[in-house]
Structures are given as C-alpha cells and as structure tokens.
Amino acid sequence: MMGLSFFWLWFVSQPVSQALKGTLYIDGAAPPIATVDEDFICATMDWWPPTKCDYGTCSWGNASLLNLDLTSSLLVNAVKAFSPLKLRLGGTLQDNVRYQTADDDSSTPCNEFVSNSSEMFGFTSGCLSLSRWDELNNFFKKTGANVVFGLNGLAGRHIGSDGTCTGAWDPTNALSLIRHTVDNGYPVHGWELGNELSGRGTGARVAADQYASDVIILHRSLQDIYKRYENKPLVLGPGGFFDSAWFASFTKAASNTLQAVTHHVYNLGPGVDEHLVNKILDPSYLDGGAEAFKNLQNILKSNSDSTVAWVGEAGGAYNSGHNLVSNAFVSSFWYLDQLGMASLYDTKTYCRQTLIGGNYGLLNTTTFVPNPDYYSALLWHRLMGRQVLSTSFTGTKKIRVYTHCSKSTGGITVLLMNLDNTTAVDVDLSVGNGVADQSFAQLRIRESDATENKLMREEYHLSAKDGDLHSQTVILNGEEIHVINSSEIPHLKPKLVEPWDPLTVAPLSIVFAQIPTIKVPAC
Description:
11 helices, TIM Barrel, Immunoglobulin-like, 2 domains, alpha/beta
C-alpha cells in the first residue's frame, strides 16, 4: 500500500473563522464500488398545464409537453450542452393521457387538460396529438436527447373509490403510439409503464403481481414492434415511491423483462415546508436519503438478473417545490448530494424533476435561463466519470464528499460540499495505492512544466451571489455565471492550480476538483 498526501489551499474573499482541518481518504487499491451510465444525468419533462397550482402559487406556465416553446434557442442550447441529456417524459398526468392515432376519426377531439376538481389528479384527461409528437421528436433530434417515454399505466383498469385498481392494463392506445414512433424512425431509449402506481400509489395503486404481468405484455409487444432493430428500447417501471415489499415482489415477477426499475425521490417533504433549507444543510437528514438506494440495491442483487436501478423522478420537495429554495443555489447541496449518494449504490441514471416547470426546474419556467442546479448538473456530467470510488472524510460532518474517476482527462474528480455557514475546511488528501504519473512526481523540480494544462489541477468553486443561499445567480471561481447573448450557455472555466498547491472549501460552497495526475488502478 502506497499513500499520497497533499495539502491544498484556496483563498476566499469573504472573512471566515479559522479553518478546520480534515482528511479525505480515497481507497485507490479497491475496484470501483459502483458504475453509473455515461449519461447518468437526466431531467424530466412533465404534462402539467398552466392551471396547475400548489399552495396558492401557479408555477408551471407554458412548460408542459403540450405547450412548451420548443423553438427557443436557449432551451435548445441548454439541452445540447450535455451531449447527450437523458429526458424522461412523464409525471402524474401521464396516466390520464390519450394518444392520437392515425386511425382516429376526424371528429374525435384531441383536447388539452382542463382543471376539474372532481377528476382524479384534479384534471380531465388530455391528449397528445400526432403533430405535437412530431414536433417533440424534431426537438429531441435537434438537441441530441435520449428519450424515455412514460406510458399511461391506467388504461383499461377500473379504479375503486379507495384508489385500488383492478383489471389488466390495456395496451391498445399505447402500442398505436409506439408503432407510429417506429414507423417515423423516431428513436426512443426506453418506454416506462405508469407513474406512481406502486405501493400505496398516488391517487391510484396497482398490485405488484398485476403490474409485473403488464410489464411482461409491454416487453413482448416491444420485441415484436422492434423486431427489425438490433438495439431495442429499454422497458422501465414502475416509476413510483419505493416500497420494499412491493418492489421486491414486482422485480422478481418481472425478472428478465424489466431492464430498469425506476423510483421517485421527494425526501425533503412538501414544498410548503418552512424548514427545507435546514433539512438541506443537515448532514444527518441527508444521510437518511441513502436507505431507499441501499434497500433497492439489495433487492436487485438478490434477484440475480440484469435489472438496474434508476431514479426516474426527483424534485426534492413535492407539489412543485418551493420558490427561491428548490430553484436557488441552496438546492445544489441537496441535488449534488443525491447524485453522489445514488451513485454509491449503483443507481445508473438520475432524473431531475424538472428540466423546466414548477419551482424545481433546471431552467426558469418563463425565461429558460438556467437555475443554479443546471450548472451543478452540467459540471457533474462533464467531470464525474462512470466509476465510483470508495471515499471517506474525517474532521467534520459538515463536509460531503464523493469521488469518481474523471470523465475525460484521466485521474480522479472529487466533489466537496461545505454545509457549514462560517467555517472553511482545509483538505488533506490521502490516496491509498495512488500512483502519481512521472511528470507529477517531477513537478517540484521541473517547475516550468507545471504550466502545461494537462499537469494542472482544475478547480470549480461554486458559491451563491452575495452569500445568499436563496440567490439564483451562481458564482464560479469568483465570477458570476450568465447566459451569453440571451441564448448561449457560457463556457464554465476552471481555476488552474499547481498540483502541489493546497485547497480550502469555503463556507457554504461547492468544489469540483479534477486531478489528472493522481492515478488509481480502478480508473
């Protein structure tokens, strides 16, 4: 076992109390503890109409799949920046959607959702027209997005007064949409059945054995419709809140037909909660989010098949989030911690609710300007590779840390978050069995070589404007981040640091440190 230890320091402009010292240890000798998808970052596009309101606030505007302005250059560029971004199309109203088909009578209306308090979910059924589906697919092609479509999982079922569903899923309308999709050459990465119908359900619930039977029907249908294609789309489900017994029964019964089991995360509680910020900055509360990831991982291991775990939808706070919390800088502490934690437990994809819409969108609902979590997601996507490394931190519980192999440069990338509001933390890094490349070992002697970017450490220090956690403006390495010419995503430039230079994580800040000179066998 060989150890590498370095002390980093980064000076911040604001006065802070004397820095604490902590040690970050990475087990470089161990194999990766988990592996995520290359396009791990995912965002959702929802069905909610402008009249969707929560706690007296209507935050959705024209962000629905049915009315979003797909021609916006800023929207297009925001999605293209990920190259690719996974997009999951779905949400509560997906189980109340009818798909227009070529066989529809010309007199058959294809209406949008209308508010009606007597209807389940508070809205009448809506309709996806073929022309709108064509427009959406043109948008996906232009942006290079990988699309997962959530199908209506209630079609054909009888819903009892207590929400219990009886009867099998009727795939007729869904299969018409799928055939139209294939006939037009529209690529779909996966088809997901239903939304929040698992366990106790949200509005309605389906028994695990029946749900598994329905998934098997979907799988068989896709095998037939895509029989001319070597690469067939994924089958996903159930897209609901984790219930250990229900998920165990469902995944076992659907074995070998289900490629990804999807669950939803809203562990911060309702958007109206006045204690959301306190929860986000509480390490113990954040730790509690690991239970569902761990339990689902154990279920999948016990099944001994190839089904993997996804987070199909996660907005932190349900009922559209909370303005100036779930769309502000403070949200990035929760969001990035969720990404890191999910990765530890072999979650392959993490879909953020939403790309746009509600008070938890990555983009502003009306202007399309990125909110802070957009930049956090983009940096994760560009810097954090597929292999997850065993990492621990001692010295304070206020530091959250995750380490992956770097995505494109070699070496490792470390994500550090300081939840303390007054105290900076000096980081001492120790890598067990780390191997410095030859140039790194000679840097102190060959100081002139250190100007080569490939030998430099790249750091991205993120903080809120004016130290206000409710700010929607991000400071990157001391500079505000803004879109360019109203339509272009800015280049996110790192701070280049000598490899031996020390680093401090400022209070209430986030740091990505990409270190190409540290090599470990896992990478």
